[in-house]
Amino acid sequence: MTPIRLAIVGLGKIARDQHLGAIEATDGIDLVAVASRNASLENVACFADIHELLASGVEIDAVSLCTPPQGRFEQAKAALEAGKHVMLEKPPGATLSEVFALETLAREKGLSLFATWHSRAAAAVEPARALMAERTLKSVSVEWKEDVRHWHPSQAWIWEPGGLGVFDPGINALSIVTRIMPETFHLVRSELTFPANRAAPIAASLAFETKSGLPVAAELDWRQTGPQTWDIRVETEEGTIVLTHGGSRLIVDGEAQIVEEDREYRNLYRDFVALVTKGDSDTDFSPLVHVADAFMLGRRIETEAFED
Ligand code: NAP
């Protein structure tokens, strides 16, 4: 098969940290262009934005959108209308209605749309899912606490409407929980803490319930300095299952398990190649649905102003 000719849109932190290397390491896909207002790359065609790229005549089959969620819809729509397959960074968009519109557009055009969740591709996720399917669950609790100043220095978009604030990392936890849980769950309580000068929350405390009544709790906080916490703890009748380090390590009944080397983004590009080859899409928006619910049901608490 001829390799998919790919363009990256938005050459920022995640594109450089993960996408470039993962594309390089994946068979069946080649990077041929970049569209970014303030960045360029050697040895590929470079454009200021997706519209310039699509008008240029440079032949591409697909785009990978690594821009912030606000504005992603216009880029994805332009790409699909031009007949290109689309891979979306998480979160897949700024609103639910826009991502459902993209899903419909991709279907109408017969193109692949891949709403990626990189944390779902972490090494401990599938082993945890298999184990949870065999056990009797009692409760699930998520603790996702990191230092925003360290991980998101001067990312203005993240604090703007649609940037999601603490849900930008928190949605990664929800993407794992929605994958490993053997039954669906829904939100019953949400408290969101907003800095006085920001449009997005710096912390969130959420309580969910599964269909059968099991509690699922999530504490998200961006004010944690020192050791960082990205843990999911599952209490079962048979013992405790803990995913740590963002889903890359697994501890079962107190014993660290051997899990494979982390290949999150290589897994995503391998899956994208398979989707395009088969003419399929993968559009599970459930993590974004839970985040939208958290805003809808959220009690707002104001805290001190946040400065970078
Ligand atoms: P970033 O460093 O701000 O990079 C995004 C790039 O998109 C910018 O460098 C910018 O490049 C371009 N862009 C286009 N329109 C923009 C706008 N209106 N405002 C700001 N930038 C704009 O952000 P990132 O951390 O890479 O995050 C991008 C996406 O990846 C987000 O959805 C995020 O949740 C996701 N993600 C990030 C990480 C991480 O560790 N940072 C991890 C996983 C997923 P030009 O100025 O050159 O156009």
UniProtKB/TrEMBL annotation:
UniProt signal peptide: none
Location of the Gfo/Idh/MocA-like oxidoreductase N-terminal domain: 4-114
Keyword terms, alphabetized: Oxidoreductase
Entry annotated with the keyword 4Fe-4S: no
Pfam families to which the protein is assigned, alphabetical: GFO_IDH_MocA (PF01408)
Record carries keyword Oxidoreductase: yes
MF-aspect GO terms: galactose 1-dehydrogenase activity; nucleotide binding
Gene3D superfamilies: Dihydrodipicolinate Reductase, domain 2, NAD(P)-binding Rossmann-like Domain
The EC number(s) this enzyme carries: 1.1.1.48
Name of this chain's protein: D-galactose 1-dehydrogenase
Species of provenance: Rhizobium soli
